[in-house]
Design goal:
The chain is built from 10 helices and no strands. By secondary structure, it is mainly alpha-helical. The longest helix has 17 residues.
C-alpha cells in the first residue's frame, strides 16, 4: 500500500491509548475504515483487523484474521509485519489455550534473520512454553534475550541460559 495509507494506520495506532475500553468498537471501526480502502485480497487488511481485535481483548477473533493475513501473502508485502503477525498469533493462540501451536509457529523464528523483533519472539515463545509447563526452556529464552542488554554479566547470563536447557554433564 502507499505511504499515505501506512501513515494513517500508524496515526490510528498512535491514538489507541486514547480509547477507553468501552470505546474499543470505535477503534476497531476506525481500523475497518482504513482496511476498506485496500484491495479485497490485500493481506494488510486482515493483519490490521487482527491487531485491532487482539489489542481490544479478543484473541479469539484475532486468530483467524492473523492466519488469513499470513496465508494471503503478508510476508510478500512486509516481512516485518509477517513476523509481527506470527508473534501476535502465537500470543493469541496461547490466550485461547493453544500454546503448542504458538510454540510450533515461533520456534522457526529463532533461526530467522535477526531484527528488532528477536526479543519479542523469545518473550512470546517463553510464555507459550511456560503455559505448557516447560518453564526452564522459557526462562532460558528470556535470559538469553536479556543478556545482551545488561551492562555487565552478559557472558554469565548467556551461559546460565544455555545451562538451563543443556543436559547435565555426567
Amino acid at each position: 500500500m502507499n505511504s499515505d495509507w501506512e501513515d494513517r494506520v500508524t496515526a490510528a495506532w498512535a491514538r489507541f491509548d486514547d480509547f477507553a475500553q468501552e470505546d474499543a468498537p470505535a477503534f476497531r471501526a476506525m481500523i475497518d475504515a482504513l482496511v476498506a480502502e485496500l484491495p479485497g485480497d490485500s493481506p494488510l487488511g486482515p493483519f490490521e483487523q487482527a491487531c485491532a481485535w487482539d489489542s481490544t481483548g479478543h484473541s479469539d477473533r484475532a486468530v483467524p484474521l492473523y492466519r488469513r493475513a499470513l496465508d494471503g501473502g503478508l510476508a510478500d508485502v512486509s516481512r516485518y509485519k509477517a513476523r509481527r503477525a506470527k508473534i501476535q498469533l502465537a500470543s493469541s493462540l496461547r490466550n485461547t489455550g493453544e500454546a503448542e501451536q504458538g510454540v510450533r509457529l515461533l520456534t522457526p523464528e529463532l533461526l530467522a534473520p535477526s531484527d528488532e523483533l528477536d526479543d519479542a519472539v523469545r518473550a512470546c515463545l517463553a510464555l507459550c512454553l511456560s503455559s505448557l509447563g516447560r518453564d526452564r526452556e522459557g526462562l532460558s529464552l528470556v535470559l538469553g534475550a536479556l543478556a545482551p542488554h545488561l551492562p555487565r554479566y552478559q557472558r554469565s547470563m548467556a551461559n546460565y541460559a544455555r545451562l538451563l536447557v543443556e543436559p547435565a554433564a555426567g
